[in-house]
Design brief:
Blueprint (H helix, E strand, L loop, with lengths): L1 H14 L5 H8 L3 H13 L4 E3 L7 E3 L12 H7 L5 H7 L2 H7 L14 H8 E4 L13 H10 L3 E6 L5 E14 L2 E8 L5 E6 L3 E6 L12 H15 L3 E7 L1 H10 L2 H9 L10 E7 L2 H8 L6 E5 L1 H17 L4
Parallel strand pairs: 3-5
Antiparallel strand pairs: 1-2, 4-5, 4-8, 5-6, 6-7, 9-10, 9-11
Amino acid sequence: MRAARLIKLVLLLQSRASMTGGELARRLEVSERTVARDVLALSEAGIPVYADRGRTGGYRLVGGYRTRLTGLGRTEAEALFLSGVPSALREMGLADAASAARLKVSAALLPELGDAPATAAQRFHLDAPGWWQPADPPPLLPAVAEAVWDDRPLTARYGRRDGTEAERELEPYGLVLKAGVWYLIAHVTADRPGHRVYRVDRFTAVAAGTGHFDRDESFDLSAFWEERAAQFARSLLRETVVLRLTPEGARRLPYVTDRQAGRDTVEGAGAADAAGWITVTLPVESLDVAQEQLLALGPEAEVVEPAELRGRFAEAARRSAGLYGVG
């Protein structure tokens, strides 16, 4: 995340009298052009970074700035580590805190704020890759986010798919933003105790309690979400396709299909034939999705079954050959 890189840049400049663009680029693992853009962003935000021109020049902080880096409050410090997702902060009602914190980065966060990065990571997760779609933020999101930050129990009314509503007593552990949709991960004690996932836009009313719940510090929000997302992805794989793959096709398969399904398929394959090809059965979401994904393998894959998909690939091959005057 860029915010973390900006923090590191300031810390590097605090530790040295001067650093060249090349030195900073190597330490930050970015290009010198990116370093220049980051320095400009810091300068525009009021951080006194000075550029010395010439062959022996570099970047340095104007003296005395170190003492100005300890002024982050807890809300600002936590928001700082989410500042790479400004729209998400606005939706959660944390935009003011993020604005106050932005680039007040420090080598010397006060000791009582040292857990701010972990606090933010425990409560908020941005699942960036994959299916993105814009969406309006749920009206109750700020209230839910406040309860998450403060470890306050929630009494919530939740709309079911059948149109009815249910009341839930929840311990809100974290929020996840995926594909423009906000999800609350909460612990429930009634019925079947455990952590559940709720779409925030289905809450019709929420009320935070006055006390605090005891948070299970071993709970890993990102790991929990990753497992749930994997379960959901596997549940979509309702069709199967029989393929023949070259060694290169087998290597690339996990990168064009569901990654875990692709790996499992290749690992479970039988012995290769005399030409080095293997035959596998791959679970897929649908024939349409399979066609889109597997075309990326080109001549490294042959569809054996089902006949419908094999016919589609044959037609695609004929059209491609016609475009290039082959056959």
